[in-house]
Amino acid sequence: IFFRCRRYMTFARQLYALTGQTAHPHDAPAGHASCNCIVQSQDDALRCYVHFEVLKVRAPGLGALAPTEAERNSNATGPPMIRVPGGAAVLRALVDFIYTDHCALALLKRAELEALADLSARYQLPGLAAHLHRRLDPVCSPLPDDAGLVEADPASTDPSEVRPCPASCTLPTLQGDILTLLEHATLTDVVLWSPSGGFEVATCRSVLAARSEYFRQLFS
């Protein structure tokens, strides 16, 4: 039943299913082996096992805090950790949005919504900022025309480099950001190739594991 149902899961849910969460005291690690980064709430109540390459394209401000490949390889004790301001509920909502383009704002208190709004600006998540603005308005002051929105500079080879996005720009989506991820060789971590030649493509373990049971087991 599990495998039959999984065929009908959206890519967002398949990717999100690879992540994991632990509560204090964090006795056992969680998340698929493709998870290579941990984000932890400031109060240490929640840890989320995630993919640094997803953070880089979905939340550039947060992805910029992720370690370099050399730093990751030198860390033999486990995935590197990024501490995020706020409590468990705020972190859970942040990760939910990064991986699915949605989060349950109705479950958050006003202070948590405001904290999440601060993080959406700090980590450059215009979609989340717009989502929160619709929820909080008119409690929060209106966003300016450009709303702090950002978009990747097409002339740049680094998706973490962003520039102001005009008010008319389209908000980024998970699907679009993942396509951007696959177009940046510096963020891909595996190459598929044919022994007979004629085929070679760079991609990400997280994407392959999300889409294929074969690769999910292979990378475990």
UniProtKB/TrEMBL annotation:
Residue ranges occupied by any BTB domain in the UniProt entry: 188-220
Extract the Gene3D superfamilies matched here. Answer: Potassium Channel Kv1.1, Chain A
Return the CDD domains for the record: BTB_POZ_ZBTB_KLHL-like (cd18186)
Q: InterPro entries, alphabetically?
A: BTB/POZ_dom (IPR000210), SKP1/BTB/POZ_sf (IPR011333)
Q: Which domain of life is it from?
A: Eukaryota
Under the heading PROSITE patterns, the entry gives: BTB
- Its transmembrane ranges are none
- Please give the name of this protein: BTB domain-containing protein
Source organism per UniProt: Eutreptiella gymnastica
